[in-house]
Design brief:
2 domains, two-stranded antiparallel sheet, mainly alpha, extended, disordered N terminus
Amino acid sequence: MLTPADASTRRGGSNLRAKTTLPRWPLLKAEERLTSKQDARPEEMRVCFPTIAEHHWLKERVRGLYRCATRQAAVDHWHNLLVNMEASDAAAVFLWAKTLRSWGKETLGYFTLRITNGYTEGCHTKIKLLKRLSYGFRNVQVYIRKMLLGFLPRAHHILAPHLLT
């Protein structure tokens, strides 16, 4: 268990806080999906690492934005979030607020149509993965077929009929 004294103790001229490995999932997962063991970790980190605690709190507030039922509630939540972020002493939080402010129109546009670009991002991720797996292909047609197979898995008999015989 981490304590503030452990995190700031110096040994051999190096700071143990810099050498502490933090678990990633308690910070990345949604708070409501944490296991009981993972749920205890963020509380420890909040005590030892207040900057990480602030970032985690803000991440959960951004997630809360998408739970707003109406556009007006989302706009109010958005402005409240930005005011809190711009009042922060951390430079990274202030830069994050600046980025969120510049993307405000697009973010709040979700509440007009209730659609996101998640499907497009998923397609980009799949293409990048297939591109990495296809490294070294000399024939462009093989590369194109592999991309099509990635998106149309049942089309293999159309793309390569010789495999069925």
